[in-house]
Amino acid sequence: MSQRSYRQICGVAKALDLLGERWTLLVIRELLLGPKRFGALRDALPGISGNLLSARLRALAEAGVVERVELPAPASVEAYALTARGEELRPVMESLALWGYELLEPEVEYEQGWEARPSWLTSTLAAGAEPTALERLDGRAFNFAVDGDRFSVRVSDGVARVRHGEIADPDAEMTTDLRSYVGLATGEAEAGDELLASLFAALADGEPAPS
Questions:
Q1: Over pLDDT 70: what percentage of the chain?
Q2: Separation between Cα atoms, residue 12 and residue 33, nearest integer Å
Q3: Secondary structure letter of residue 65 according to DSSP
Q4: Distance in angstroms (rounded) separating the CA atoms of residues 206 and 211
Q5: Beta bridge partner(s), residue 141
Q6: Residue boundaries of the structural domains of the chain
Q7: Where are the alpha helices (DSSP H) in the chain?
C-alpha cells in the first residue's frame, strides 16, 4: 500500500491511495494484456526506473492485485500477472481508455515523439465494440505483428480480447506498419482478407466519436 493516503472513508479515495500513484495504472494496463516478465514490463513503460517499477509491483502485490507466476514452457520464467482481484479492474480500465480516447490528438502527439503501440489502440477499440458487431466472428482468433508489437485478438461471446504475444493456429494474421494498421483499425482503409475486414469493421464501429 502506498505510504501516502487521502485519509478519507470513501471508495474512490481508497482506490486512489493505491492506484493514483504515477505509473501504477499503466502497469495494470500492460498486465491486462497478459503476464509479463519484469524486463518486458519495463520495456513497455519507457521512462520508468527499475526501482520505481519494483516499488509499484510490490504495492500491488501487497494489495492482492498482482502476483508472481511462472510462464509455461518453453519460457518457464518468472513473470507478473493480475490476480482475480486485479482482473476486476478490467471494466474500469476499459471505461477510462474510452473516455481518454476522445482527448487524444494522435497526429500531433505522434509528431511530438509520443509512444504509440497498436495493441493499446486495439484494446481501446475492442472495449467499445458492440457485441452484435462481433457476433459473426465468435470463436475467431487473429495474430498481428505491427512494427515489432506482436499481439492477438480473440473473439468470444461478443467480446474481443487483446493479448500480447501470438496464439497458435489463428484464423487470420497480418504483418504491417503502424500507420497502415491505424488506418485499418479506425475504418479509414479496408483489409483485403474477409475475416480481417470484418474484425476491423467491428472495431471501427465502436470507435468513440471525435470530440
A1: 96
A2: 25
A3: S
A4: 15
A5: 154
A6: 11-88, 92-205
A7: 11-19, 24-32, 38-44, 50-62, 84-87, 90-101, 106-111, 118-128, 131-134, 178-185, 194-205
Q: What is the pLDDT of residues 151-183, one digit of tens each?
A: 999 999 999 999 999 999 999 999 999 999 999
Cell numbers placing 127? 472495449
CATH of domain 11-88: 1.10.10.10
pLDDT at 73: 74
Distance CA(121)–CA(200), nearest Å, equals 12
Give this prediction's pTM: 0.91
Backbone φ and ψ of 193, nearest 5°? -75, 135
pLDDT in tens, 88-136: 999 999 999 999 999 999 999 999 999 999 999 999 999 999 999 999 9
Q: Which of 87, 88, 78, 85 is nearest to 40 (CA)?
A: 78
- CATH 3.30.1050.10, applies to 92-205: yes
pLDDT(1) > 90: no
- How far from 57 is each of 34, 61, 75, 176, 185, CA to CA, in Å? 15, 6, 21, 33, 32
